[in-house]
Amino acid sequence: MTQDTIQQGRLLSFYCHLRARHDGMLVSEWLLEHAKKHGIGGGSVFRAIAGYGRHGVLHEEQFFELADDLPVKVEFLLSEAQAAQLVETMRTAGVDTVYASAPASFEVLGNR
Q: Which residues of the chain have pLDDT under 70?
């Protein structure tokens, strides 16, 4: 890493259930589509193998059957302005999710 190429911004992590929906779409897909439409450079969805949320219900994968409502995390590395805009859009749209925000330093490696 060199000081010339390091970018400062935010790591946003949104948490929801695998089957959670907003406006007829999975929340994770809605987030990715919205971010892509607004020029955010990339996002990723990660599925948990187990977890519980604010309601205290445990969801986990079983050996013979997979739980259909596992927790998922959707992450973005963003500029401060993009992060604020994305959170405000989620709030205004009434998307049912929880998010965490942390300062982040990041750099694009390889071909740009």
A: 1-2, 59-68, 112
- What spatial distance separates the first Cα and last Cα of the chain, rounded to whole Å? 15
Give the CB-side neighbour count of residue 72, counting CA atoms within 13 A. 23
pLDDT one-digit tens code per residue, 55-87: 777 766 665 445 567 889 999 999 999 999 999
User: How far apart, in whole angstroms, are the C-alpha atoms of residue 97 and residue 91?
Assistant: 9
Q: Nearest to residue 40, comparing CAs of 84, 101, 94, 93?
A: 84
Q: Which helix (H) or strand (E) holds 48?
A: none
Give residue 70's region: left, alpha or beta (phi > 0; psi -120 to 50): beta
The 8-class DSSP code of residue 11 comes to E
Enter the DSSP assignment of 68.
S
